[in-house]
Design brief:
Blueprint: E1 12-16, E2 34-38, H1 46-51, H2 76-83, E3 103-105, H3 120-123, H4 130-150, H5 164-167, E4 169-173, H6 176-184, H7 189-212, E5 217-220, H8 230-235, H9 250-273, E6 279-283, E7 296-299
Parallel strand pairs: 2-3, 2-4, 4-5
Antiparallel strand pairs: 1-6, 6-7
Length: 300
């Protein structure tokens, strides 16, 4: 999301089928590392390292000080790491006190799937879009192994073994900013919906490239109900007739649901293209926020 705002969270969770449950692994499921890609919903210090620390009250309830997260406490990626008994992820861009032996976080607040033709000072969107994050990961793989082969001792131990990359969990939480970016350009909800397939083509391309580099287990979040974001309701025209009983914008949420539907279809296509990966998908479509909408599960 835009890095100075919060989002309501729902999930699309995609796992290789050897995972015993759709939400969390049991004790016999062992991921040695997490490599995360995304926006502020999973940024643990990337944007802060590049553009300055996220100020208080960020971090105040758990870390008791700013901790690189645009949240007053932990993010979902932190709870995933805890559940897998891994340390919190260090941001790839953070050179101070980072340990990448158990993974790395390439997310930056304000990131999008599709690169934005603007600056962060103009729009609030990060220049480090998903394709750039993937390039950073590729560079990390190459350089980390060069250092591990040359170095002994301390610095070597801060980087992952070569076999970790094929056994790691790859997590993604990105896409909401691609929708709101269109609204900021005064595009209609119809126009934003029209470019969603292209955005997801770019997302698919990144997954395929990561698969080509050895990734096999993917955890992918869908987008939350954009029409419930306070800044959407404040900045953009929403008529009384377009507001649902939860106080959210129906047209903007319809676009979010469309994004999630097409995301599910994108993953179905990925399953056909990536024969060495089998997936389990759980598609919630706002069920955690709007309990009157049924949860949907799909096996592909």
């Amino acid at each position: 999301m835009e890095f100075n705002h919060l989002k309501f969270q729902t999930l699309v969770i995609i796992f290789a089928t050897f995972l015993p449950t759709p939400l969390f692994c049991s004790d016999n499921c062992n991921f040695p590392a997490i490599f995360n890609f995304g926006d502020s919903n999973s940024d643990t210090g990337g944007l802060s390292a590049a553009f300055g620390q996220a100020p208080p009250p960020n971090g105040e309830t758990f870390f008791h000080a700013p901790a690189g997260r645009f949240s007053d406490g932990r993010l979902l990626i932190d709870f995933i790491a805890e559940k897998l008994e891994l340390p919190y992820l260090s941001a790839f861009l953070d050179s101070i006190g980072s340990n990448f032996s158990h993974g790395a976080n390439f997310a930056t607040a304000g990131s999008t799937i599709r690169p934005q033709n603007t600056t962060i000072s103009q729009s609030g969107y990060s220049p480090i879009s998903l394709d750039i994050q993937r390039v950073q990961f590729s560079d990390f793989v190459t350089r980390s192994q060069i250092i591990r082969k040359k170095e002994e001792g301390f610095f070597r131990n801060l980087l992952p073994d070569e076999d970790v990359f094929s056994r790691a969990l790859y997590t993604f939480d990105i896409g909401q900013n691609d929708l709101t970016a269109g609204y900021k350009l005064n595009l209609s909800t119809h126009q934003v919906k029209a470019y969603v397939p292209r955005v997801l083509e770019q997302f698919s391309d990144v997954i395929q490239k990561l698969y080509g580099e050895g990734g096999r287990s993917f955890w992918i979040h869908n987008t939350g109900p954009v029409g419930c974001l306070p800044y959407i309701m404040d900045r953009f025209l929403v008529t009384t007739a377009q507001i649902d009983k939860y106080g959210c914008s129906i047209p903007y949420n319809d676009v979010s649901e469309y994004f999630n539907l097409r995301l599910n279809e994108t993953v179905s296509e990925l399953r056909k293209k990536l024969p060495m990966a089998a997936y389990y998908i759980r598609r919630c479509l706002f069920s955690q926020i709007f309990p009157h909408r049924p949860s949907k599960e799909t096996r592909i």
